[in-house]
Amino acid sequence: EIVLTQSPGTLSLSPGERATLSCRASQSVSSSSLAWYQQKPGQAPRLLIYGASNTATGIPDRFSGSGSGTDFILIINRLEPEDFAVYYCQQYGSSPRTFGQGTKVEIK
Amino acid sequence: EVQLLESGGALVQPGGSLRLSCAASGFTFSNYVMSWVRQVPGKGLEWVSDISNSDGTTDYADSVKGRFTISRDNSKNTLYLQLSSLRAEDTAVYYCARTLGYCSGGRCYAYFGSWGQGTLVTVSS
Question: In what order do the strands lie in the sheet with B68-73?
Answer without folding.
Answer: B3-7, B18-25, B78-83, B68-73
